[in-house]
Design brief:
TIM Barrel, Recoverin, domain 1, 8-stranded parallel beta barrel, 16 strands, elongated, binds acetyl coenzyme *A, binds pyruvic acid
């Protein structure tokens, strides 16, 4: 039985509440890139910021409004004429008119009374309608407000022309049960629900709100937002689609693209275990899981990664079993006997026990040792030099033997590691276009002379591999990881050619 009657609308507030994540600040062109993708994937309304906040915010609103996106363009306003004027003058279609409605907010924050706030709300609705705006009249801290007072404020707002209402669980204290109790009385106009994740209840309460009659959910990409953030777009959309069988109208295959764009532009990294979009959401290491996945991915994946624009990965480590190690070896082109496989699995587990991430290069090296294959590396390092300091541009030079030819290259970079990696890539560019997809340094414990563990993910012709370098010198560890990975990728090409 379907739990929701209609397709819920989605209002994305990544560019407003999401940008209120402390430390996040987006330039107008960044906001436009995100808004364009949000509109393209099918979001109904985009709250692009708070026009009153700054000149840059108004510039963003103008830029996005003038682009003519399919989605409705909304901006946050207080019950203040100036805010509403900004919204109208800078091209918004609609306003998210936010009015504090709990006594706590009215008395302590605004230092006003209920009558003052009611009048402010109603006058603002009338003014915004006069300025030609669609109005979503929103109760801030609605979950802690007196329900009777709130209903009266909403009803008067609707009488004065408010097109929609919104119920904000501003500090994330609403439970799904309370949402089910409270919300039906407010369905006197299309109702939105706006939830925060302070206690991790955002998604559950948003779903309960939709079930209780709300017709629109406020969400943010990656769950960004004040404090612990808002209900994540990706979680809500995939829950509605997969668990409740609803067509949200969102192109789910673009979700990962959207998530990584937002993470990159906001500089808020994704937690590795974040549902749907975290690095590990479709990555498996445990032997029992990998064995199951290899037979039927549904055994340990509730949705297929392709549905959200991702790919499955199987990592090796101390929890691996023979099925996943054999699959990884076979992908690398090794044909092995059962006894050799047992030995390789044992060595993989030993690396894991030593606290190491097991990379493709590690597996390759183990396989070569166990199978006793001697392999001539394509690249050998002759020397590298880096220069850095407070008054010089970080610079690196490298000399490599590439297929026996001596090649020297130099590069500047953001720091010595960046410079040496650029120089290495330049030195091998004639034999392969290798890009660095990820660079990771494991936490260093101990003193400044402790071992540094660098892992790189490299790509060539669509193939991704990981490799590691571990030295006390971070530049040397980086060079080691790069050379090992580049050799693996270039050797693979030579092997493929026969
Ligand atoms: C739950 C939420 O997410 S609410 C949205 C939060 N977003 C923002 O704050 C957007 C960014 N904010 C800003 O740039 C600034 O705070 C501005 C431009 C809006 C206001 O700046 P200032 O005028 O310097 O005021 P300041 O930030 O110190 O205080 C907020 C003022 O707005 C008033 N106010 C707060 N909410 C509302 C509201 N919904 N309607 C009307 N007035 C409000 C406060 O009472 C206070 O005014 P007061 O000093 O006269 O009492
Ligand atoms: C308006 C808003 O973002 C809130 O009340 O949480």
């Amino acid at each position: 039985m379907a739990l929701f009657v209609n397709r819920p609308r989605i209002l994305d507030t990544t560019l407003r509440d999401g940008e209120q994540t402390p430390g996040v600040s987006l330039k107008p062109e960044d906001k436009l890139s995100i808004a364009t993708l949000l509109s393209d994937i099918g979001v109904d309304v985009i709250e692009v910021g708070s026009a009153a906040a700054s000149d840059g915010e108004r510039e963003s609103l103008r830029l996005i409004s003038d682009t003519g996106l399919k989605a409705e363009i909304c901006t946050f306003v207080r019950g203040v004429k100036l805010d509403i004027d900004y919204a109208a003058d800078y091209g918004a279609d609609s306003v998210h008119l936010v009015i504090p409605v709990s006594d706590l907010h009215i008395e302590k924050k605004l230092r006003k009374d209920r009558e003052y706030v009611t009048k402010m709300a109603w006058d603002s609705v009338e003014y915004a309608k006069d300025r030609g705006l669609i109005v979503e009249l929103s109760g801030e801290d609605a979950s802690r407000a007196d329900p009777e007072y709130l209903l009266n404020l909403y009803a008067g707002g609707v009488e004065r022309g408010a097109d929609r209402l919104c119920f904000c669980d501003t500090v994330g204290v609403l439970t799904p049960e309370r949402a089910a109790e409270l919300l039906p009385q407010y369905c006197i106009a299309p109702l939105s629900i706006h939830c925060h994740n302070d206690l991790g209840m955002g998604l559950a309460t948003t779903l309960a709100g939709l079930k209780a009659g709300a017709t629109c959910a406020h969400v943010t990409v990656n769950g960004l937002g004040e404090r612990a953030g808002n209900t994540p777009l990706e979680d809500l959309v995939m829950s509605l689609e997969v668990l409740y069988g609803l067509d949200t109208g969102i192109n789910t295959e673009e979700i990962y693209h959207l998530s990584t764009l937002v993470s990159r532009l906001t500089r808020v990294p994704l937690p590795t275990n974040k549902s749907i979009v975290g690095e590990m959401a479709f990555t498996h290491e445990s032997g029992i899981h990998a064995h199951g996945i290899l037979r039927d991915s549904a055994t340990y994946e509730p949705i297929s990664p392709e549905l959200v624009g991702r790919k499955r990965r199987i990592l090796l480590g101390k929890h691996s079993g023979s099925a996943s190690v054999e699959a990884a070896l076979s992908e690398m082109g090794y044909i092995i006997e059962p006894r050799q496989l047992q030995e390789i699995v044992a060595r993989v587990k030993k690396l894991g026990d030593d606290g190491k991430r097991v990379t493709d290069s590690d597996l390759h090296a183990i396989a070569e040792a166990v199978l006793d294959i001697s392999c001539t590396p394509v690249i050998r390092m002759k020397q590298y030099t880096t220069v850095s300091g407070n008054s010089v541009m970080p610079t690196a030079s490298v000399t490599l033997f590439v297929n026996g030819d001596e090649i020297t290259q130099a590069s500047t970079g953001a720091g010595p590691v960046d410079a040496v990696i650029m120089a290495l890539r330049k030195a091998v560019q004639d034999v392969g276009d290798i890009t660095l997809e990820e660079y990771h340094v494991d936490a260093i414990y101990g003193g400044t002379d402790a071992l540094v563990d660098v892992t790189v993910t490299l790509r060539k012709d669509g193939e991704l591999i990981t490799s590691r370098g571990a030295r006390t010198d971070i530049v040397m560890a980086s060079v080691e990881a790069m050379i090992s990975g580049m050799n693996r990728l270039l050797r693979k090409r030579d092997e493929d050619r026969g």
